[in-house]
Design goal:
Elements lengths: L4 E4 L6 E4 L5 E5 L2 H7 L4 E7 L3 E4 L3 E6 L5 E6 L6 E5 L6 E4 L14 E3 L15 E2 L6
Parallel strand pairs: 3-10, 10-11
Antiparallel strand pairs: 1-2, 2-5, 3-4, 4-9, 6-7, 7-8, 8-9
The chain binds zinc ion (2 copies).
Length: 136
């Protein structure tokens, strides 16, 4: 895979450039992520804030996370596409929603968390790390 890779929301108002490979790609099976993704799990690519450049106006929504941290979400105000999450106490770690990338072939989660809440019809692939809850 060669970087940079471009990404955008569904309507194109928010664009970004991913300059380097994510540090980690994980799937989360918690009920909040099922609601967010309208699917059985959400996928997150953890990238350093210096490795991604955003363009366009985003709106923010915050909720308390199970860990006691704040989970802040950035999304497109026009089409509603979720772009990334972050913990305001750790602003360097961008939790990108990588389904917005123009090339989604990099999205292969190696870690699955909150498998205690996963849909029974979904089978975790072999060879990935799993956690019942948030994980370390
Ligand atoms: Zn949009
Ligand atoms: Zn989750």
């Amino acid at each position: 895979m060669t970087y940079p890779i471009q990404g955008s929301c569904q309507c194109g108002s928010v664009k970004y450039t991913l300059l380097a490979a994510p540090q980690l790609i994980q799937a989360c099976h918690c009920l909040e992520c099922q609601k967010l993704s309208t699917s059985a799990f959400s996928v997150t690519a953890v990238v350093n804030a210096s490795s991604i450049k955003f363009e366009g106006e985003m709106q923010e929504w915050r909720r308390p996370a199970d860990s006691g941290n704040i989970s802040a979400a950035k999304f497109c105000p026009t089409c509603g596409n979720r772009i990334y999450h972050f913990n305001p106490a750790e602003p360097d770690a961008i939790k990108l929603k990588p389904s917005t990338l123009s090339d989604t072939s990099i999205i292969k989660p190696t870690r699955h968390i909150w498998v205690s809440q996963k849909q029974h019809w979904y089978q975790i692939p072999e060879g990935v790390v799993t956690f019942e809850k948030q994980g370390a």
